[in-house]
């Protein structure tokens, strides 16, 4: 699954749906690290954060995108 939410991050309904179905892998593309951090607090309960990379999509500005790869945790690792 790939998500690329607006600056407000994932809405509660979508986040609840993701946490209910827990796809094996997920890529989260974010333009707001604050809402990314907020969403990751919930997502890391069922996902391992495997990779995070900042990408400068808008040269000569302070804006960057963050790309995060999440992989479903093995059942005995769930919190």
Automatic annotation (TrEMBL):
GO biological process, one term: rRNA base methylation
Keyword Nucleus: no
GO molecular function, one term: 4 iron, 4 sulfur cluster binding
Highest taxon of source: Bacteria
Coiled-coil region: none
Record: residues binding S-adenosyl-L-methionine: 4
Keywords, comma-separated and alphabetical: 4Fe-4S, Iron, Iron-sulfur, Metal-binding, Methyltransferase, S-adenosyl-L-methionine, Transferase
Presence of the UniProt keyword 4Fe-4S in the record: yes
Active site: 31, 31 (nucleophile)
UniProt cross-references to PANTHER family, sorted A to Z: PTHR11061:SF45, RNA M5U METHYLTRANSFERASE (PTHR11061)
Protein family according to the UniProt entry: Belongs to the class I-like SAM-binding methyltransferase superfamily. RNA M5U methyltransferase family.
The protein's name: tRNA (Uracil-5-)-methyltransferase domain protein
Organism encoding this protein: Streptococcus oralis SK255
Highest classification ranks of the organism: Bacteria, Bacillati, Bacillota, Bacilli, Lactobacillales
